[in-house]
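[agent] plan:
  1. take the single chain provided in the ticket
  2. run structure prediction with default settings
  3. attach structure tokens to the ticket
  4. add a short note for the reviewer (M.T.)
[agent] executing step 1
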Amino acid sequence: DTAPRAWFIRGLVAAERGDSATLAQAIAAIAPSKQADIQADRQELTGRAALLDGNAGAALTSFEQAAANRQQAIDYRGMARALALAGEASLKLGKPSEAAVFYLRAGRSSLLQGDTAAATPQLKRAEELARQTSQTGIVEEIARLRKAAAERAPVRT
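[agent] step 2 finished; step 3 output follows
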């Protein structure tokens, strides 16, 4: 299991650098698998490659599949990352209302994992998009999540 994981990390770095060739090499090195976590790694890299190629529709499909597989693998941090990427792809497709939902789901998942550093920008983005698209339910949900997170936060003395 370490070789596919190493290729995944290499692919993430390549995607961040915009290195399509190395990203394609990483995708090819991760063979299709029945293991949800390995399949999710491959799908996430495939989505990142599609974003680099300007194919937001294919990217969105890959990120949604990656999120579902990460959930199945009980990798909620990875699921939140895939959902945030799905939000990015939705924005590129000109679908800000869908993007708001993806960012909300990502932020909620991050909060539930105790990762406020990831949750804060995800929820902020969801709120901005929800306000732009008049999705008051999402804005209200974000307020509830923030309140609940503040109530659970340890008191500093």
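[agent] step 4 note for reviewer: The mean pLDDT is 94.
[agent] ticket updated
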